[in-house]
């Protein structure tokens, strides 16, 4: 009765764990894909001001001009080549990914996705009747243009890059991004660069090659407010791409999202004015260091360079069995690697929680893995 | 390069007019699909309270429990047969329609839509690779089960009902809805009943047959907050349907909308507590009467029974030519029937504006049609 496409679309393993958390007692939740800090008070005040000032109606499909202008200025400062018409405001980065996939994909198309992946990439590919093609980057999680090259066929329509990456925290080398974009251009393939975690950085290097913005012809760059400003429930993101793609986005958005929530678009301007909390990466680096210090004796973990996840490897046994073993009263919630991969060897741990919770969580995890191995 | 589906998806004729309005001087805008009144202060205060109280993170995919419980209670009071598990909170009714179409449709399927239609129905059908089949209800705009019956084929997957209807304001007779649902059940076809305008009513009769809720097996009922509470930019709606459909909605929402904007879900509870403004239909009936009284001598207009649109017929000439003729500085904006139909005979006028504006708008329209006919 239902569309056959949906048989391939799975319930999110991350959300499944998230929905279970409420049912358990005294459980430490390390599944969360959202920062633990509160939204800056000035941004919240601005959202309330917009609501009280009647900014509650539909906006233009591509977002309010004020927000687009602010984004334009910011990108210029960051060295991007950009016109106001290259910008499109979306309902979160998920909204942006959905619009992109829906614009580009049709039955028979292939989408190249690194594995482990953020499961939305895979499932939206299926939802668009296309086929995901995985580039296995276990165990080092290093993506190179050469690895991508091997997977390109005449059916490849899109390559998805996520840097820093969910669930590994790895960054794709700038030079490799340039190579991938060049390679794709030759093959008439689009590249999505999903930068949602770009403001959580633990290494001191530029991660985005601004020179690629000189030509948007096969490029869709996605950024969001959700993680950077801790407003995941406000559904606000944006895209920078060429005008032909934006024309298609406009059509699709008119019949789906209509527009990003109006008051939060105004609050988004304030968020950009205030800018990223300069202490955020330092604070999150401490969290990352806590995890690495406590868990490294027990698990093999690639040191995250960004985002707020790590992806420890099980010393032995199945990660999904272990996640189940951990998910009990007085336990700990993690997401097994099967939510990001065909491999059941690793699990994702989010360190976006307060340090005491994180330390206790890691200690519980150590007790659990010790018991699990017996 | 782009998905072939998109070639059939048109830019919304309504939004096109909406986007033009800002560019003209002293223009009276009668294109608006949103009420003219402000959101109730208590509801706005509740939204701000939610923001300040940190209700800014992802919610459960199907919406916060408090809102679903409140909706459940309300529907029970209205005589619906319903479980809490029949409810799903969406990002506006457009979000609900998108989820429904995406769940049900695949290539080759047919969707029965009344013509004139709300253009989202047609365009989302194309976006899902399916084919719209139109039931022409010109010139009286009365939909019956018999008219639907003629269009059913082995490929029909879905019938979409909108009552009160955009753009005509017509209500589908309760008994006809029952017949259509029964007929569809026999043919294994789903029925969407889109009730977004149900709180704008100008006739004294029940419009929804609650008895059909005894069996949700082929039923998707869609309602929204946007129009009733004037919060179009808040993106909040909901669906009542069977649990199998909701399971599919959950999967799709996880990769697209994620959840309706969190603070507005809390404000939605307050909106339901306060209930529909008891004067609203009376105030809108006055607006409707203004239009009917002023314009009836010049246009043939079916008296709207609900919603806040009327759909006058051109005495002569093309409606899209007339709309262009009206859209000048010091003019008036209306939406030509081609945005709702293959026929260029009528235009949509929204009376969701203050009475003075509306009177002036109608007067301008009379001047314009007089000049246009010369």
TrEMBL record, chains A, B:
> SUPFAM superfamilies, per this entry?
PLP-dependent transferases
Spell out the protein name for this chain.
Answer: Aminotransferase
* Record-annotated Aminotransferase class I/classII large domain positions: 25-364
Q: Per its UniProt record, what InterPro entries does this chain match?
A: Aminotransferase_I/II_large (IPR004839), AspAT/PAT-like (IPR050596), NHTrfase_class1_PyrdxlP-BS (IPR004838), PyrdxlP-dep_Trfase (IPR015424), PyrdxlP-dep_Trfase_major (IPR015421), PyrdxlP-dep_Trfase_small (IPR015422)
Going by the UniProt record, its keywords in alphabetical order are:
Aminotransferase, Pyridoxal phosphate, Transferase
What the entry lists under Pfam families is as follows: Aminotran_1_2 (PF00155)
List, alphabetically, the CDD domains matched. AAT_like
The superkingdom of the source organism is Bacteria
Name the species this protein comes from.
Anaeromicropila populeti
Which family does the UniProt entry place this protein in? Belongs to the class-I pyridoxal-phosphate-dependent aminotransferase family.
The terms under GO molecular function for this entry are: pyridoxal phosphate binding; transaminase activity
Biological process annotations from GO: amino acid metabolic process
Cofactors demanded by this protein: pyridoxal 5'-phosphate
Q: Fetch the Gene3D superfamilies from UniProt.
A: Aspartate Aminotransferase, domain 1 (3.90.1150.10), Type I PLP-dependent aspartate aminotransferase-like (Major domain) (3.40.640.10)
- The EC number(s) given in the record are 2.6.1.-
